[in-house]
From TrEMBL:
Residues 190-199 have a biased composition (Low complexity). Residues 57-82, 190-225 are annotated as: Disordered. It comes from Kistimonas scapharcae. This is Scaffold protein. It comes from the Bacteria.
Length: 225
């Protein structure tokens, strides 16, 4: 018999099973030696939060101190006419800004890939396969993100990884008809007309309701569009 860790009452239990539980403020729980007390767990969480707050404060204080030191050094260099110092200072600022922008671009690209490749592949795999996990890598390798008419879309790639004119529905049919994947294809849905992103032109000229179009519509409000 599977025992519950927590119960509200011991009524209905035999004496041997009931003896395994101990009273708590809100019912009974299994008496397990070495299990942390709830208050100890809460204390650890509070201590962890306190340490994280201190680390954040220390980081902010160091950044403020470094900024003040740079500004003081720049001011001293301006007064002394130290052109080389000023040039290096500006170069460092530009490099830091460039790194910040690159990080933002990488984060944006990651979000786009998740919405326009990963999500589309996941939906298609669930649509056609009894083992989506097996199909996902194969489908994802045939999809990419592309900019068309000023907006990001899902583009279908050919077998060599080059952009193609195939639609997402075409890609679905290709996988369904591929005998190599026959063991994991859902037969009842493989021959049906309910295909993910039906009618989508390479994910770009998709009809309303398609996977790629819904994904593209989802990101219209993003600042990078």
């Amino acid at each position: 018999m599977m025992l519950k860790f927590k119960v509200d009452t011991l009524e209905g239990m035999d004496e041997a099973t009931a003896a395994m539980y101990q009273k708590t403020d809100n019912g009974y729980q299994l008496a397990i030696e070495g299990l942390p007390e709830p208050e100890n767990v809460d204390g650890l969480k509070a201590k962890n939060a306190e340490l994280l707050t201190k680390l954040k404060e220390q980081k902010e204080a160091k950044e403020a101190s470094d900024k003040a030191a740079r500004e003081a050094a720049d001011e001293a260099a301006r007064k002394a006419g130290d052109v080389s110092h000023l040039e290096k200072s500006w170069s460092d600022k530009l490099a830091a800004r460039e790194a910040e922008l690159l990080a933002q671009i990488e984060a944006r690209d990651g979000s786009l890939k998740t919405m326009l490749v990963d999500n589309v592949a996941q939906a298609m795999a669930a649509e056609i396969s009894v083992s989506p996990g097996i199909m996902m890598p194969h489908i994802k390798s045939r999809l990419s993100v592309e900019v068309q008419d000023g907006r990001h879309i899902t583009r279908v790639l050919d077998a060599e990884g080059k952009p193609s004119a195939a639609t997402i529905d075409d890609l679905k049919k290709e996988f369904v008809s591929n005998q190599a994947f026959a063991p994991v294809i859902i037969g009842s849905k493989a021959s049906g007309s309910q295909a993910p992103n039906s009618g989508a032109q390479g994910g770009g000229n998709s009809q309303g309701g398609s996977l790629a179009d819904r994904a593209a519509t989802h990101i219209k409000s993003k600042s990078w569009d």
